[in-house]
From TrEMBL:
Assembly and interaction partners: Interacts with Spx.
Protein source organism: Filibacter tadaridae
Protein name (database record): ClpXP adapter protein SpxH
Family stated for the protein in its record: Belongs to the SpxH family.
Compartment(s) where it occurs, according to its Swiss-Prot or TrEMBL record: Cytoplasm
Lineage, highest ranks first: Bacteria, Bacillati, Bacillota, Bacilli, Bacillales
CC terms in the record's Gene Ontology section: cytoplasm
Function per UniProt: Adapter protein required for efficient degradation of Spx by ClpXP under non-stress conditions. Interaction with Spx stabilizes Spx and exposes the C-terminus of Spx for recognition and proteolysis by ClpXP.
PANTHER family the UniProt entry points to: CLPXP ADAPTER PROTEIN SPXH, GLUTATHIONE S-TRANSFERASE KAPPA
Sorted UniProt keywords: Cytoplasm
Main location as per UniProt: cytoplasm
Length: 268
């Protein structure tokens, strides 16, 4: 499993500035992928100058078929649901920018695992796109386009070439295109991924200090209390106390679920 055997596609020149390429395979309907999110965010904030990240969708379907995409072309799309729709929607969001794709995936996981919404329903996916202020006309058009199907087929091809059989799975590549990728299946402690990065880079890595809270919310939209505490080296109680101050100042909004509290920047 090396990159020279993968699909031929243009390489982003900026990738050469970072020594590691990281592919993260995710199933949008997988519970472990919700648990993965805080870990991946922390990795991005602290060490993303060392790696380029590509999220690869490993759909829960055995294979992607044309019919699920054709179904979206009818006028009553909003009444439809399909197990492939979450993956299609993430790809449609990505067409409005890589960050839009990340934010859509994050919000979709929130809807699925915290709000218990059926993210296989197009109407719910459209609601998510509206919440994130995506261009709805563009999103709807891309959702039913053949370009989305092609993009998903590339992801399925990557899963096959890298022999990825479960989600989540991390695959790390170093700067040598002929070297085998290092595959890590399942979910592990954050320190494991940090150690792998250090071994591949060949030196001890210094984490970037976290940006201010406003910048974090611009990047990730919503954050758990525990995540925020971890970013700033605080206890959860201390983090919640600081967040409550901002809540009183109407700088943030709080969303409480069963055992998770999410925070986001106050919206006008």
């Amino acid at each position: 499993m090396n990159r020279s055997s993968l699909i031929e596609e243009p390489i982003n020149p900026s990738a050469f500035a970072r020594p590691i390429e990281l592919y993260v395979f995710i199933d949008p309907l997988c519970t472990d992928c919700w648990s993965l999110q805080p870990l991946l965010r922390k990795l991005q904030v602290e060490y993303d100058r060392y790696f380029t990240l590509r999220i690869v969708l490993r759909t829960s379907l055995p294979s992607m078929n044309l019919q699920c995409t054709r179904d979206t072309e009818s006028t009553d799309t909003c009444d439809k649901a399909h197990a492939a729709f979450p993956s299609i929607a993430v790809k449609a969001a990505e067409f409005q920018g890589k960050r839009a794709g990340f934010r859509f995936l994050s919000k979709m996981l929130e809807y699925s695992f915290l709000k218990s919404k059926n993210v296989s329903s197009f109407s719910i996916l459209l609601e998510i796109a509206e919440t994130l202020n995506l261009d709805i006309d563009e999103f709807t058009s891309d959702f039913s386009s053949k370009n989305v199907l092609r993009s998903l087929q590339v992801d399925l091809y990557l899963s096959k070439e890298m022999e990825v059989e479960q989600a989540p799975t991390f695959v790390f590549f170093n700067g040598n295109i002929e070297d085998e990728g290092l595959k890590v299946e399942g979910l592990y402690d954050y320190s494991v991924y940090k150690q792998i990065l250090e071994e591949l880079v060949g030196k001890s890595l210094t984490p970037e200090p976290p940006p201010n809270l406003e910048s974090l919310f611009q990047r990730f939209d919503t954050l758990e209390t525990k995540e925020i505490a971890t970013f700033y080296g605080l206890s959860e109680k201390s983090a919640e106390r600081e967040l409550k101050k901002r809540l009183l100042q109407q700088n943030v909004e709080r969303m409480a679920f069963q055992d998770v509290t999410l925070w986001r920047k106050k919206r006008g």
